[in-house]
Amino acid sequence: MTREQRLVLAIAILGSFVSFLDGTLANVALPAIRAELGGGLSAQQWIVDAYLITLGALILIAGALSDVFGRIGVFRAGLIGFGITSAAIALAPSVELLIVFRALQGAAGALLVPSSLALIMANFRDAAQARAIGSWTGWTSVASLAGPVIGGGFIDLLSWRAAFAINLVPIAVALVLMSRLAQRDVRRAGAAVDFPSAFLVVAGLGGVVFALIEQGNFGWSHPGIWGPLTVGAVALGLFGWRQTRVDHPIMPISLFRARNFSWGNVATVFVYAALYLSGFLIVVYLQQSAGFGATAAGLALIPSSIAMILLSSTIGKLAGRFGPRPFMTAGPLLMGAGFLLMLMITDPLNYWTQLLPGAVAFGLGLAITVAPLTSAILGAVDTARSGIASAVNNAVSRIAGLVAVALVGLIVGARLDLAGLHRGLVVCAALSIIGGVVSWIGIRRQPVGSHSAG
């Protein structure tokens, strides 16, 4: 790699790292936040999902913003906004304000992921691009998996507030590195931002998720539940309709004409729903029911992080050589096997015999899946559309996660006990296996240098 390419890759990894990190760091902080600020299971779901709602919805508009204003400028704005909102979360005096700040943090995070991947796609080609994506997906996936570890350490040694404030360090480093970039920002001629569509998708997701989370408190027959659910469903329907009518849609339907893009996003729904749901269930259960401290709970899934670090780059290269289909099939199936192995968990829990074998299988499966999945989806579209393509895929993964977390109450009941954990793990296994089957049916090897959608 050239000096400029090394800088781009480091900046892309650092910026996305904090976004992915905070997506899961909150899981391990939930019991400590509840002890200090109050709130039950629904408040815990909101702390996770407030971030995912704005992140998942606004990632779509962030891709268009990158095309209009330039990837570098949008990325820099995301870094600054993420730093400010992280500091606000660390100082939050109530759980209600914390949830508001998490939503704002998700909006800032939405500016980071599409711009970072678009920077990589613009600066790397062919085999080098596959390796760079492998490194990016490896480290960003490690961020998701390491969030509970890093958060747990800060919570046990200092406080949950310090766990969120630590974001300021990688953000500062990334901003310094950006000042050393030699390249100029790139804007796409004729690009525009569809703000009404962004409003519709935020309102739609917000209404649906509100109903799913709060139905346990009010019941489905309550107007405070079916009202927001209806409004959300209508807003999402209008969003889909609008994407076929406007000149500059934030989710271009034409992208889905590419086979690997459309099938890859379907696989993303199932794989990432399983990933987010399992992260919430396992980390919270270990602390609130199994008696683990925050650090121990965070370390429980460390085999997954190790597998991602050691294997992602290699898997990315192999997928570039042999195609993504075998990896996107075998990986989710192995993830599903890992969740089924975790059904050995009993009360009291023995980590080494009951949780570790499943964690290892899950980590290996995830490492085999992520880089080929990203390469298959982005490789199916023209490089000029990589920003919006990555935005759509990242939105799909976050929306799948936020819906999965919103369904926790329906899956486990009012309290996350051992029986509820087992039900959740079965759901995670089923989601993963479906993701593997979808990949086998739909994914095909993409000829080097060819794209199906522009």
Q: Describe it for me?
A:
- The protein is mainly α and 454 residues long.
- The protein has a single domain (3-181, 248-442), classed as Growth Hormone, Chain: A (Up-down Bundle).
- It is built from 18 helices and no strands.
- The longest helix has 35 residues, at 3-37.
- It is globular and about 55 Å long.
- The relative contact order is 0.15.
- The model has no long low-confidence stretch (mean pLDDT 87).
Short characterization:
The protein has 454 residues and is mostly helical.
Q: Which oligomeric form is depicted?
A: single chain
- Low-confidence regions: none
Overall mean confidence score, pLDDT: 87
What is the strand tally? 0
What name does CATH use for the topology? Growth Hormone, Chain: A
The major β-sheet equals: none
Beta-strand percentage range:
under 5%
Summarize the helix and strand pattern as letters.
HHHHHHHHHHHHHHHHHH
Helix/strand class: mainly alpha
List keywords for this structure.
single chain, mainly alpha, Growth Hormone, Chain: A
List the helices and strands and how they pair.
Layout (H helix, E strand, L loop, with lengths): L2 H35 L3 H29 L1 H20 L4 H16 L2 H11 L2 H32 L2 H6 L2 H11 L16 H24 L4 H21 L15 H30 L5 H6 L2 H21 L2 H17 L9 H28 L7 H21 L1 H5 L5 H25 L12
Helix pairs in contact: 1-2, 1-4, 1-5, 1-6, 1-8, 1-11, 2-3, 2-4, 2-9, 2-16, 3-4, 3-5, 3-8, 5-6, 5-16, 6-13, 6-15, 9-10, 9-16, 11-15, 11-16, 11-18, 13-15, 14-15, 14-18
